[in-house]
Specification:
The chain has 402 residues and is mostly helical. It is 74% helix and 2% strand. It has a two-stranded antiparallel sheet.
Length: 402
C-alpha cells in the first residue's frame, strides 16, 4: 500500500489529546500519523494505547474512503465517461442513499468520540494530579531535608559552643583551685619554717644567756677568790658564799632552759604533722617520724631523691637547683612515708605514660608537682598507672593539681 500525503484530523482528536501530559501527547500524535500516512502501527504504553484504540475506528474509516476514491480515479477516460454517464443516476441514487448512512456514521462516531473524550479527561486529570502530587511530595521532601540539615547544623553549633564554655569554666576553676592550693601551700610552708626557726632561735638565746651567766659567775668567782686571797680570815665564808652563788645561778639557768623547752614543745605541737608511718623492723614497729636531727641530713636525703629523679624520669624537666622549699617538701614526704616509698613513687612516675606527656594536653609532671601532698598520694595509690594496668581508664579520669 502506497504512502499518503494527507489525512483528515478532527478537532475532537485535538481536544482529547491536549488534556494529556506532553510526553503522552507526543506518543499519541506519532501513532496517529504513522498509522494514517504510512499504515504502520506503533507499540504504545498504557494511556497512549487507550486513546489510540478509541480513535482508530475513525482512522480506518478515513483510510477506506481514501482507497475507494483511489480505485475510482484509475480507469480510462472513455470508460470513465461511459461509467460516469451510466453511473450518474446510480451515483445520485448512491449519494442519496449514502448521505443518511454517512450522517448515521457521523452521528454514531460523535458519541463515541465524546465518550472517548469524556473517558480520557478523568485519566488525564488523574495523571496530571498524580504528577502534581509527586512534584509536591518531592518539594516537601527537599524542604524537610533542608530543615533537618539546618537543625543539625544549629545543634552541632550549640553543642560546640556549650563544650567551649564548659572547657573555659573548667580551666578557670582549675586555675583558681591551683592558685588557692599554691597559696595555702606557701602559707603552710611559711608557718612550718617560722615554727621550725623559733625553737632554734630560743635555743640560741638560751645558749647565749647560759654563757653570759657562766661568764658572770666566773668573773664573780675570780673576784671572790682574789678578795679571799687578800683576806685570809674570811676565806671559809667567801667560799661558802661562792658555792651558794654558783648553785643559785645553775638553778636559774636550769629553770630558764626548762621554760624554753616547754615553749618549744608547744610550738612544735602546733605545727601540722602527718600521722607517723610505722615500719616493722625485727618484729617491732618503729616510728619513722624522727629520721632527721640536722638540716645537713635533710639536704643530703633531698639530694639523693633528686638524683634518683633526674636519673629515672628522663622525659620530665630536670631539677637544676635544690632549694629550701624542695628540701622541706622531700623531708615531709620522707617523714610521712619513708625514703623507700618516695623512691617507689619516682619509679611509678617514670613508668606512667600520662605523666610523661602522653595525654590530650601534652602536659608533663615536674618534681615540685610530684612532691606536693595531694599528688604524691594519688601517684602512690596508682591513679596514674598506664591503661593496660588500669582497665577502662581515660584521660578524663586524671585531675592535674599544679
Amino acid at each position: 500500500m502506497e504512502e499518503r500525503d494527507s489525512i483528515i484530523f478532527y478537532r475532537s482528536f485535538f481536544e482529547s489529546i491536549k488534556l494529556l501530559p506532553s510526553e503522552t501527547q507526543a506518543e499519541v500524535y506519532n501513532a496517529i500519523f504513522e498509522y494514517s500516512l504510512n499504515f504502520k502501527e506503533v507499540e504504545l504504553s498504557e494511556t497512549p494505547k487507550v486513546i489510540f484504540t478509541l480513535i482508530k475506528p475513525q482512522l480506518d474509516a478515513n483510510i477506506r474512503k481514501y482507497e475507494n476514491g483511489k480505485r475510482k480515479g484509475t480507469r480510462s477516460k472513455p470508460e470513465a465517461n461511459q461509467e460516469q454517464n451510466r453511473s450518474k443516476p446510480e451515483a445520485n441514487q448512491e449519494q442519496n442513499r449514502s448521505k443518511p448512512e454517512a450522517n448515521q456514521e457521523q452521528n454514531r462516531s460523535k458519541p463515541e468520540a465524546n465518550q472517548e473524550q469524556n473517558r480520557s479527561k478523568p485519566e488525564a486529570n488523574q495523571e496530571q494530579n498524580r504528577s502534581k502530587l509527586e512534584a509536591n511530595q518531592e518539594q516537601n521532601r527537599s524542604k524537610l531535608e533542608a530543615n533537618q540539615e539546618q537543625n543539625r547544623s544549629k545543634l552541632e553549633a550549640n553543642q560546640e559552643q556549650n563544650r567551649s564554655k564548659l572547657e573555659a569554666n573548667q580551666e578557670q576553676n582549675r586555675s583558681k583551685l591551683e592558685a588557692n592550693q599554691e597559696q595555702n601551700r606557701s602559707k603552710l610552708e611559711a608557718n612550718q619554717e617560722q615554727n621550725r626557726s623559733k625553737p632554734e632561735a630560743n635555743q640560741e638565746q638560751n645558749r647565749s644567756k647560759l654563757e653570759a651567766n657562766q661568764e658572770q659567775n666566773r668573773s664573780k668567782l675570780e673576784a671572790n677568790q682574789e678578795q679571799n686571797r687578800s683576806k685570809p680570815g674570811a676565806n671559809v665564808e667567801c667560799i661558802m658564799y661562792n658555792e651558794e652563788c654558783i648553785m643559785k645561778n645553775e638553778n636559774e639557768n636550769e629553770n630558764e632552759n626548762e621554760e624554753c623547752k616547754k615553749k618549744d614543745d608547744v610550738l612544735l605541737e602546733k605545727e601540722p604533722k602527718a600521722p607517723p608511718l610505722l615500719k616493722k623492723v625485727g618484729g617491732e614497729n618503729k616510728n619513722l617520724s624522727g629520721l632527721y636531727s640536722t638540716k645537713e641530713e635533710r639536704k643530703k636525703d633531698c639530694e639523693e631523691i633528686v638524683n634518683n629523679f633526674n636519673d629515672r624520669c628522663t622525659c620530665l624537666p630536670i631539677v637544676q637547683k635544690i632549694t629550701d622549699k624542695r628540701i622541706s617538701s622531700v623531708s615531709a614526704r620522707i617523714k610521712e612515708f619513708g625514703k623507700e616509698k618516695v623512691n617507689e613513687v619516682i619509679d611509678m612516675v617514670s613508668e606512667s605514660t600520662f605523666l610523661n606527656g602522653q595525654n590530650k594536653q601534652s602536659w608533663t609532671a615536674d618534681f615540685d608537682w610530684i612532691m606536693s601532698p595531694a599528688n604524691f598520694i594519688k601517684i602512690l595509690e596508682g591513679n596514674y598507672k598506664n591503661k593496660d594496668l588500669r582497665h577502662e581508664s581515660t584521660d578524663e579520669d586524671f585531675t592535674i593539681n599544679r
